[in-house]
Amino acid sequence: MDAVKFQIDIQRAAISRRDQIDFDHLPFGKYVSDHMLVAECVRGEWRNIEIRPYGPFELMPSTSALHYGQAIFEGMKAYRAPDGSPLLFRPEANWERINRSARRMCMPEIPYDLFLEGIRQLISLDRDWVPEQEGSSLYIRPFMIATDAYTGIRISDTYKFIVYTSPVGKYYSNPVKLRATANYVRAFPGGTGEAKSAGNYAGALLATKEAKSAGYDNVLWLDGIQKRYIEEVGTMNVMFIIDGVAITPELGGTILRGTTRTAVIQLLREHDIEVVERRIGIDELWQAHSEGRLQEAFGLGTAATVAPISVIGHDGSLPEFDSPGGTLMESDPKITLPGDPMDPNKIGMRILRHLTNIRTGKEADRFGWTVRV
User: In the beta sheet, which residues pair with residue 38?
Assistant: First the structure.
């Protein structure tokens, strides 16, 4: 790191809050570690870079991000290696993705050294917050907001980049139940679906609320044009095993380029499992299930890791497609995946074990995915 250009001032917390946390019971997102990284960008120049105690910061009521949505974020994790050191998982991929989001939202790109070295120093300072418990990790949340105090739609001149961390347990403790809908759409071609933009998640809240009220965990989003082709889940990418082949929706600008998705695709091929990235219709899924060819399904994400899916339903709003699947869907709004989704012999569970062993340093990282702090 260029210490002259990106000097990071460190203010240590006087008292750590770590002893107040029950690390054996970590709900996702409830607790926050002692420190945060803060940096400012003014007309393309990064300055005032510091690590300081986690706490509030001031914003004017007219702050641009609060009115016009220039706000992006990332999700990363650090794991505890057998020797006790923290391991970051694919931080370069997160840096690349936050900058793709920044370009789409007309925000400044974050220099690699600032992003990686800032996070390294933050994790090093709060290394005791990385959980040792199996299935737990330190979730890392980098985000950036526009901070011009100006009422009017324009590209901001000033930005604030912040990273804080949170010790977490599993995002999904049980197999996931999903519901598809044609009443709401997450993204359209040419929109911001591929960006990890805050507004995308706000727009998904109502559909998610309705799905949860009906007994599901989240929404299985379909494409915005035909409302037929599966795109992703509200919290993760998705993959289906049909006739022994792993099928996942192709990237086309409307779904996130998941860092876990990319890693899992590579691991599946290492396990001699064919992977196909293509469009897959919700009706095709129903047809494969009716014929006994749909073997399993799982989600892929930083928070969710590899999450087995047990049920896929729909809310009755889906159109009748010109295929046998349309009729099947009309008569049965819910399908249950065969067998025990947590069966250790399932493809998803085998890949989860392999991925977890790499992330936690229990298995050699032949891919160069982990960065030791």
Answer: 50, 162
Q: How far apart are CA 327 and CA 323, in angstroms?
A: 8
Q: Is this model's pTM higher than 0.90 or not?
A: yes
Question: What is the pLDDT at residue 320?
Answer: 76
Q: Which residues pair with 255 in a beta bridge?
A: none
Distance CA 80, CA 89 (A): 11
Looking at residue 253, its pLDDT comes to: 94
For residue 3, name the pLDDT band (cuts at 50, 70, 90): very low
DSSP character at residue 281 = B
**3-state secondary structure (DSSP) of residue 160:** strand
Amino acid at residue number 157: D
Instruction: Report the chain's terminal Cα–Cα distance, integer Å.
Output: 14
Sign of CA dihedral 92, 237, 299, 303: positive
The DSSP secondary-structure symbol of 344 reads T
Rg (CA), the chain: 21
Specify the pLDDT at position 332: 67
Confidence band of 327 (pLDDT split at 50, 70, 90): low
Angle between the N-to-C axes of helices 259-270 and 91-104, in degrees from 0 to 180, rounded to the nearest 10: 140
Mean pLDDT, range 76-103, rounded to an integer:
97
Residue 84 backbone phi and psi in degrees, to 5: 95, -10
Cβ proximity of 178 and 309 under 8 Å: yes
Separation between Cα atoms, residue 177 and residue 212, nearest integer Å: 9
Between the alpha carbon of residue 29 and those of residues 165, 170, 210, 303, the distances in Å are 9, 10, 22, 10
Q: Which residues of 344-355 are buried (b: 16+ CB within 10 A; e: fewer)?
A: eebbbbbbbebb
Query: What sign does the CA torsion over 159, 160, 163, 164 have?
Result: negative
What is the phi/psi pair of residue 145, to 5°?
A: -130, 150
Q: How far apart are CA 355 and CA 353, in angstroms?
A: 6
* pLDDT tens digit sequence for 205-217: 999 999 999 999 9
Tell me the C-alpha distance between 257 and 236, whole Å.
Answer: 10
